[in-house]
Structure formats: C-alpha cells, structure tokens
Design brief:
Distance between the termini: 8 Å
Order of helices and strands: EHEHEHEHHEEEHEHEHEH
Structural class: alpha/beta
CATH topology: TIM Barrel
Strand content: 5-15%
Radius of gyration: 19 Å
Helix content: 25-40%
CATH architecture: Alpha-Beta Barrel
Number of domains: 1
C-alpha cells in the first residue's frame, strides 16, 4: 500500500519556502506521493452545494488565495526526485482538452514519469461560469469526452478525434508521456456516474469517504462501494485499482460512523494503522492524508510522527 500526503495549495503553508520544505521532507520521510487540489478561482458568492460537508457550505478556510494546480505540480516536480505527484482532483472541464493533455504530458516527461492524473467532473457552478467552461449541466459528458481525447493524444502517433466538445486532426503531439500507455487516471467521486466513469475510463477509483450522500466512512460501507465499482468494471471487461482520500483523521473524529461501525481513521495511531491494514486486505493500494497545522514546524513534526506511529505499523 502506498501512502500519500496533501501538499498545500492555499494558505500560509503554500508559500514558496513552506511548500518546498513540506514536499522535500515528505519525500525524505518516505511518503509515496503528494496530492494537489484544484480551484482556479473562488467565487465570492457560492450557492452551489459543497459535496463533502453536512451543511453543504464550502469551508471558509478554503477561500484563501491559491496556486493553479498544474503549475504547482510542475514546480514541485522540479524540487523532488522520487515522490509521485497526484492531481487530487483536477476538474477536467476547467481547461481545454488539448492544452491540458499537453501540460500533463510535459509534467510526466519532466518529472521522469511521476504523474498520476486524479480527475473529477466538478461541483462549483459559479467557478465554471467564471472560468468559461462548456455548460455546467454537461460537465459529466465533457469530462468523459476530454478523457477519451487525452488517451488518444497520449497514445496515438497520428491523433485524431471528432466529438461534441473536442475535435482535432492532422497534428503532431510529442513528446508522449513517459509512462505507458499513459499516466494513471484515478477517478474521483462517489456517485453512480463517478463509479461508471471509473469502470469505463479510469485506472483507479479515488473517492473521499465523507460525502454525506454516499458515505464511505466505515469498512463495510467502503467494501460495498468497492464491490460495486469492481462489478461495473468487470462488466466493461476491465479491472480498476482502489485508492482513498482521507480528509480528517485522529481522536477528534467520532469513534463510530452512522451505520454503527467503527469510523475509519478515527482514534489512536494504532487504530488508524489497523484501518489501513484492513483496507489493504480489501485491495486498496493507495490512501492519502491531510496533515496541516498553523505553522510549518508543527506540520513537519506531525508528518514525522504520523510516519513513525502509523505508517511504520501498516
């Protein structure tokens, strides 16, 4: 099992020196990958419902100024040498398909094949309007078509594509990504469409456990979701890996989920290590955590503590 750490894209820890220190130290400590979130702008008035809170409100702390995701990934690729880099997740409709495929291919080449493309269809309607995307209501279809275009550009020597949202022919698209056939695509989301997208187009399912509409915060709940996505993939003649993003962990979480089972990643370091072992037994290959404190020193200390007290026992 590989364990990832969230790299700050907003707030004080995203300042150049702090961000670089966190990335370099994560690699030195032994984390397997870094994750990077994606918002191009934060609208001042958000009416869209945030999927990962009970109230549906976008967290106030997330409204700080932030870096553009793919630029930050490229920057950290140059500061590190071994750790993998995961977009977590890239909102696919936010950027033109051909340009995005080129940026991602360039990052993969310049990083020596360390990129994983975590993707999602997005949820914030106001941000879509500000960025100037295709219609928000069509974001699922846009995402699927863009992913197909990415694959064509990354794998075909004479790429051509004719879709509703993307059309190209007679172009040279080089260099191709280092990874073959292309960087892994992890599909974020917990809904039915996200599971179907995973089965059809993804290399891994990459949910967050705290979506109130589709909770995956206990082992039985996650097992049921994994069985469903595996069934859909098998019906499509494919297989997919399993990844999981953990937003919060530790003793401040309730010990039980609403289904009466143990809440994943609550409690002591030993209990969290046990959860990781249980998930590993289900075939989960990747889990990532957020470790962030008001100061860089506290964040680095907790990163080392988490590695020594949790990861060393998985």
């Amino acid at each position: 099992m590989q364990i990832g750490l969230n790299a700050p894209t907003a707030g004080p820890l995203a300042a150049v020196e702090a961000l670089t220190h966190i990335a370099v130290e994560a690699e030195a400590i032994g984390f397997d990958y870094l994750t990077f979130s994606d918002h191009i702008v934060i609208p001042a008035d958000i009416q869209a419902r945030y999927p990962y809170s009970e109230t549906g409100e976008f967290p106030q702390g997330a409204r700080a100024g932030r870096h553009e995701q793919l630029t930050e990934v490229a920057f950290i690729a140059a500061k590190t040498s071994r750790i993998r880099l995961v977009t977590s997740v890239m909102v696919v409709p936010h950027r033109p398909a051909v340009l995005t495929a080129k940026i991602l291919s360039t990052i993969d080449v310049l990083s020596g094949g360390r990129l994983t493309v975590g993707i999602g269809a997005g949820w914030m309607k106001e941000e879509f309007a500000a960025v100037g995307t295709p219609p928000f209501a069509e974001r699922g279809a846009v995402t699927d078509e863009y992913l197909q275009a990415f694959r064509t550009l990354w794998t075909s020597e004479t790429p051509r594509f004719a879709g509703k949202y993307v059309t190209f022919d007679g172009i040279i698209f080089d260099p191709k990504p280092v990874q073959r056939p292309h960087p892994p695509i992890w599909v974020g989301g917990e809904s039915g469409p996200a599971l179907r997208r995973t089965a059809k187009l993804g290399d891994a399912w990459y949910p967050i456990g705290t979506n109130p509409a589709n909770l995956l915060d206990s082992l039985p709940r996650f097992r049921a979701g994994a069985e469903q996505v595996r069934k859909l993939a098998a019906e499509a003649g494919r297989s997919v890996a399993l990844a999981l993003r953990c937003g919060r962990h530790g003793p401040e979480l309730p010990a039980k989920a609403s289904d009466g089972e143990r809440r994943l990643f609550s409690g002591t370091p030993g209990e969290i290590a046990g959860d990781l072992r249980d998930l590993k037994s289900l075939g989960v290959g990747y889990v990532d955590f957020t470790i962030a404190h008001p100061t860089l020193a506290a964040t680095l200390t907790d990163m080392k503590r988490f590695h020594d007290e949790v990861l060393a026992h998985v």
